[in-house]
Amino acid sequence: MSNEYDVVIIGGGPVGxxxxxxxxxxxxNVALVERNxxxxxFPRAIALNGFSMGLVKELMGPELWSEFEFTPAIHVGYxxxxxxxxxxxxxxxxxxxxxxxxxxxNFGFVSWFNQPQLERLLRTSIEARDGITTFYGHEALxxxxxxxxxxxxxxLSSGKSFEISAKYLIGADGGGSFVRKQMGAExxxxxxxxxxxxxxxxxxxxxxxxGKDFDAGGHQIIDPQGKRPTTFLICEGKNHGxxxxxxxxxxxxxxxxxxxKIQSPDSIHELIDPYLNxxxxxxxxxxxxxxxxxxxxxxxxxxxxxxxxxxxxTSPFQGQGLNMGIxxxxxxxxxxxxxxxxxxxxxxxxxxxxxxxxxxKAVIKQSLFLGGILFNVKPHINLLRAIxxxxxxxxxxxxxLFPAFVPETVTVANGFGPGKANQKGYPMYNYMxxxxxxxxxxxxxxxxxxxFCNGDTSSVLDAVSDVPEIVSPMVVELSDGKRx
Length: 484
Prior knowledge:
Blueprint: E1 4-10, H1 14-25, E2 30-34, E3 47-48, H2 50-60, H3 62-65, E4 70-72, E5 75-79, E6 90-92, E7 96-97, E8 100-101, E9 111-113, H4 115-127, E10 132-136, E11 138-145, E12 149-155, E13 161-171, H5 178-183, E14 187-189, E15 194-202, E16 217-221, E17 230-234, E18 246-252, H6 259-262, H7 265-272, E19 282-291, E20 294-296, E21 300-301, E22 304-306, E23 312-313, H8 321-340, H9 351-375, H10 379-391, E24 399-400, H11 402-405, E25 409-411, E26 428-432, E27 438-440, E28 450-453, H12 458-463, E29 474-479, E30 482-483
Parallel strand pairs: 1-2, 1-13, 2-10, 5-16, 6-24, 13-22, 25-26, 28-29
Antiparallel strand pairs: 3-9, 4-9, 5-6, 7-8, 11-12, 12-13, 14-20, 15-18, 15-19, 16-17, 17-18, 20-23, 21-22, 26-27, 29-30
């Protein structure tokens, strides 16, 4: 067996696995190195957005996709206290278009999922690919550059070590990334680290306390009295989805908390008691987690790159950490593909960081802002929230937070709005599909280059007729949501 590959990926979590599948689908011979022989058994990331879901669906294929359990979230509410969760002062919910919630028949604006199951299905998909060699149960010890990137890896069970090499090396090896450190890339802090007690619960919906039986979604509870800001996620939808009987809590830790004591079953039962009957629950996992807000200052050194948490880490308030990693990985893979096939010169690889850094930094800062809303329990801020609640929440009109954190939504009959191209941010154009459901264009064939046309496509087709097949775009004429 040859030990030379086109690409070596260090780290086989969701982002590294997706990178290997994307590269293999483009004809690359890939080596995937991961220290764990089996997927990590407990949930960590819990939310995938529409782009990530569409990408995962294409990479899994129909059979594996049919096994994947997920539930679209309906909304995220911001409430003052856990006793009045039906009176949010703020609400993040996709727009309702012609009586239907955007993307709700598909993936929603975010979908809850189980990370161990996702990793297992991705590994199954990898096993079926001839172009991916897996080194599970191995870790990288040394790397150096010559004509190629050389990596010395060790099998953890036997201690046996050997060398593999590749033109491209990608570090998907998490927050403490070995590859990033070898690249000499520094992490920049964008905000304070935050400690949480994360608790995953298995329980029937009947365990929910009165006033807590909402559809799939999340609640950010300020809790100014107890000063224990809490995120409460209901991962099962009443009338949709397959991801059932699962709840997540994220309890902010206070100065002086005993980290050992607060993780005890008795303490957890006390914390969840306002939401669920402790007698009917199973504690799947509890752990203290430190969320950082960090971003690497150098994503590329020659033909070495980092992706995922090795490149950027964010707080949990938007559920976008994994999505950011998937989105940026897709960007990098496309560029490596174009350069390796001689369609672009090497300088294109520099645009990976140029294009993705501003977006990633903005997502991290938005998440910090949301955390500030949740964590700030100072009296004057509580008074302001109480006033908003009095004038809006009690009247059934919570502040709509969706436009503040999601690009402006534009919907017209044919799903295309050229007149809005100069609006702030990236417009999230929508279209109505044949069944009459509003969908986001960003989820339409997310792995392909696309040109959406407001009218006849003939001139566009002529213009791209000589474009190499590898970058030849899908040209779509949108008319009442139909592809012609």
